[in-house]
Amino acid sequence: MPSLDGSSDRGDLQGELLTAQGEVKRLAEENATLKARLRSEKNERMKAIDIFQENEQDLLENFKTAIDFLEDVKKTLNHPQGASPQVMGRHGTMEDDLLFIKEVAQGLHPKAAAKMDVRKSLADLTRNFDVWKTWFREQLREAYVELDAQAAR
Which range, of 33-37, 61-65, 124-128, averages the lowest pLDDT? Predict the structure, then answer.
């Protein structure tokens, strides 16, 4: 029963105020916890997207390299002398390939090192060089034959 001076009404209101303040504090803490979880999940999602994009780019580069290699093989197999001039004209890139293989072996390209067998790549490059050397030697021989034929005229 309310008192004449209103003290019990004031007490009830103070109790409700304290309860409401406690609830506000609890909800603020819960909100802060949810925000922290949301930030953490967002960061994890961003990391996953970054990793996916890096892997996707690596896959595309590997695919392009494989396609280029297969085109070179096709040209080599279709050329009557066993190696097409277009493939053989790549001797300038052999130096680049060798430099890259050396850099991978030195650990300068960690992504490539994880996917590349350096010894096999070096052996492949050696084989390509030997094919080019044979082709080029034949081209020199043909040039001398043509030169001798012109001199005989």
Answer: 61-65
